[in-house]
Request: fold
Amino acid sequence: MGRHPWVFSGAIDEIEEGFQAGDIVKVFDAAGRFLGMGYVNPRSQIAVRMLAFEDVSINPGFFERRIQNAICLRRPLLMSSETNVCRIIHSEGDFLPGLIADRYGDYLVVQFLTAGMDRWRDVVIPILERELPVRGIFERNDSEWREWEGLEKRVGRLTGEEPPDFVEVRENGLDFVVDIHGGQKTGFFIDQRDNRRMIAELSKGKRVLNAFAYTGGFTVAAARAGATETVSVEISEPALNTARVNLGKNGISGDAHALVCADVFEYLRETRQEFDLIVLDPPAFCKNKHQLAAASRGYKDINIFAMKRLAPGGLLFTASCSSYVTPELFQKIVFSAAKDVRRDVRILRKTSHPLDHPINICHPEGEYLKGLLCQVD
Reply:
C-alpha cells in the first residue's frame, strides 16, 4: 500500500463484524500479511486512516510522542518574537490523521475532524496542555468533514480561559486580530505566512490589488512595506471590517488603501484600474473531483481578468488551495490564461506549504496549497 495513510472502502474485501466508527483495527493484505494499524469508520469512503505501519500499541504514549515530535518541528517558530501564530498539528502531515491544532498567541484552536481522532479527544487535549502551555484551548469542530464522519458539530471552550471575540496575534512583525470563534478555517490563513512575507518584499512603490482579501493579511504586508496604493476586494463585509481593524493596528490609513466589498470576478471585469502587483488567493473552488472542470474554468477566468489589469512588467501572485488541483494542473491553467490574453508570462517562483504545514510524502493529497509568482509583460 506504499504507506499511504488512507484505505478506501472499495479496496477492502472484509471488515470483521463488531467494529464501531473510531475503533483501532489491524489491516492485512489478501495474503494475510500485516500492513499496519489505524482507526476504522465503516460509513466513510476512507474506511481506515492509518496511524502506524508497525504492530504497536495505540495508547496515550503513542499520541504523546507524535505530538512532541510535531512541536519539536515548530520550535523555531515557537521561539520567534516576530510570529506567535502557527500550525502545531497538521493531520496526515504529522502522522495524526484528523487532528488540527493552531496556535494563536496565548490560545490553541483544535479540530477533531474524524471519528477515530474524536475518540482520542480526552487523551490529546491534556497532552497539548502539558506540552504547549496556553491560556485556553478552543474547539472549532464545525467542519463539514465531521458530518461526513457521522459526528456532530461543536464550537466552544474546552479548557482554560474563554478566548475573547478577537485574539491579537503577530505575524512577521505585523499585528492582526483573529476571529477564532467564527472566522474561516480556524480564523486565519496561517498557511500563507511565507507568501505574505514574499509580497512585502515586492511591494515597495507599487500599486497593489489584494483580491479575495479576507481580513487583509496580504494588504497589511504590502502597505507596511511601502506600497503606494492598495485595493482590497472581499465579498464578506464582516471580514472586510476585520481587515479595516488590521490596517489600523499597523498604522495604515487614508484614501490610498481602499477596502471594497464586492465579488472579485465582477470587480475585475468592471474595473479599468491598472496595478503593478496583484494577489489572487481565492477560497477552494474545487472540494471534490466532480467539481474539477468547473473549478479549472474559474481559476482560468480569474487569472485572465487579473492579467488584463496588470501594467506591463507587473507581478501576479496566484494561488490555489484546492487539493484536487495539482501543481501541474494549476500551472497549465495559468498558462492557458496567459495564452488567451496574449501576454508574455514568466514564472519567477513556485511556492507551497510553509514549515508548519508539512506534507507526508506518501500522501500527495495533502499537498493542497500551491502558488505561482509571475511577471506579466
Remarks:
- The chain has three domains: 6-52, 60-164, 189-376.
- The longest helix spans residues 292-308.
